[in-house]
Amino acid sequence: MSGTMKAFHELAGKTGAWLQDCLDRNVPGATEQAEALMAELSRKLDALRSLPEDPERLRREPDSLEEIRALRPAASHTPRAVNPDRLASRMAGALNGRFAGCTLGAIVEMNAVEDMAAHAAFDRMDFPPKNYWRTAGQPSWQRRYRTGIPQGYTREGMNGVPVDDDIAYTQLGLLILEECGRHFTTADVGRMWLKYLPMACTAEAVALQHLKEGVAPELAGRTDNPYQEWIGADIRSDPWGYAAAGNPELAAEWAWRDAVLSHRWNGVYGEMYFSAVIAAAFTVDDPREALEIGLEEIPAACEMAKTIRWALEKSGEIRNYREAREAVTARFGEMSCVHTLNNAALTVFGLTIGGQDFTRVIGETVAMGLDNDCTAATAGSIVGAVIGIEEIPAHWTQNFHDTCYAYLNGIERFSIRDMTGRFLRFARGEK
Q1: SS in 3 state form for 191-235?
Q2: What is the Cα–Cα distance from 431 to 181, expressed in whole angstroms?
Q3: How far from the centroid of its chain's Cα atoms is residue 249's Cα?
Q4: Torsion from C-alpha of 253, 259, 263, 264, nearest 10 degrees
Q5: 3-state secondary structure of 381
Q6: Which helix (H) or strand (E) holds 403?
Q7: pTM across the whole model
Q8: Cα 129 to chain center, whole Å?
Q9: CB-based contacts of 215, cutoff 8 Å, min separation 6
Q10: Band of the pLDDT at 370, cuts 50, 70, 90?
């Protein structure tokens, strides 16, 4: 963090410390100052909420699917051929790739690069990691998403894929497709969130709370939501890419229906883009080609498209995780560590550095930091769809034991083989 936000956090922290001290010592006038401060902050918050959007940006970055499609680059948008003999392997590779990337990143999520390197040294392992962490280090959580214990994310303690929101939305996407059908709507997504989601974070938490309060699905994410371009929709990309394997346009459309419940602008485009990339990954032999195809499904002049093009152009000179992180920091500066754009660039760099080497893709991506369980999960999903399950080294999946745990209401676990088969039925047009 640097610049404006760093100065703001420092000032807010110092103000809070002085206020606490004055209140603790019962300094005369402290309570009145606290009330005045909160009233002024409330006015400033209202002023921030009321700032008008840039009309030129709204023109370049519309919300409706029709307007988004009108601003895409010229392309045929026709489905791409999928080799039926390889589809099952690629589907298993995509799912297991996501699970492995997410699990590797989970216990070091948003850790500083230097802290991860120290963790690796403590664990006597390579950095970037080539296997799961030996220990959970000193995690700030005791139960991840209420059920996941720290040891369950380590190579010795793992007994099934542990819970994570980057996995929960893949599970939920499958349920949406099965219970609502291929023509599901945003309203259906909202209904399924109310049925299955016990909790959510950032933009999803805002939308879920508004749904519980009776706000219409098309407005649930647009009210009092400062997280509309954060990574939450991006991590929900996978089910649509799996079910629409070979059809990036359909994958992006399904992603749009899902994303607009909680996000706008580049938050929506992030999910559309990576869903299209995943759908394309089932048809190509190089992850980079899938990354290029995905650009066909989002507005050519939006910030997400500009970010991806920049990362692809820059990738020729990015050799490792340090160079990738330095390039992203130089370009995006003080942007939130859970924003769609900076994390999308890191995902691209992880794939272009690693290519078809699964271990290097997820290891380098995790080592880059920021929201690295999200980025590694997406990168693992994409390379897994390209190479197939046979090319994922066994140590990444041997402790999954055909089990993927869940924190969804009423569901504690999924069979990985069963999930693979269920997505395959959609990909083959059987459902």
Answers
A1: HHHHHHCCCCCHHHHHHHHHHHCCCCHHHHCCCCCCCCCECCCHH
A2: 8
A3: 20
A4: 0
A5: helix
A6: strand 403-405
A7: 0.95
A8: 20
A9: 223
A10: very high
